[in-house]
Design goal:
The protein is built from 3 helices and no strands. With 134 residues, the chain is mostly helical. The longest helix has 45 residues.
């Protein structure tokens, strides 16, 4: 039977997961903003070229306006996640740093993974991406 993972290993895995989660929310936000831009440009283009109003055109415009409102709401919800996620990453960094023991008392591969996780967490906290522990 394999030994149970150490507290450092667990804290490192948690921090790594949080950093990946934060990165995925940034990607999601960029995609949402791109969709919103396309919807808004569609509305501007259709609104300026349409000479006559008919029922189908009005329904299409209403649908696009609804989609724009929905996309704006999704963007705001995604942005609202960042402060809490940042606090969780800060807590994760403190936990990993607290689990790092004196040099030579822990598995060096585990220590290396922890230092790598700390280095990867720096940009999420708005810090320059310097290498941790180097």
């Amino acid at each position: 039977m394999a030994p149970a993972p150490s507290a450092l290993s667990i804290a490192t895995s948690s921090l790594t997961r949080l950093v990946k989660e934060e990165q995925s929310y940034h990607i999601e936000l960029a995609q949402q903003e791109s969709r919103l831009g396309r919807l808004q440009s569609t509305t501007a283009t259709n609104g300026s070229t349409r000479q006559t109003h008919d029922a189908d055109a009005d329904a299409d415009t209403d649908n696009v306006e609804y989609q724009i409102r929905q996309e704006k709401q999704a963007i705001e919800q995604t942005k609202a996640l960042f402060p809490q996620l940042r606090r969780r990453i800060e807590d994760g960094v403190k936990t990993v740093e607290g689990q790092l023991g004196p040099e030579g008392t822990q598995d060096q591969a585990e220590v290396h993974r922890a230092q790598e996780a700390l280095t990867n967490a720096r940009p999420a906290l708005g810090l320059p991406p310097e290498q941790y522990g180097a």
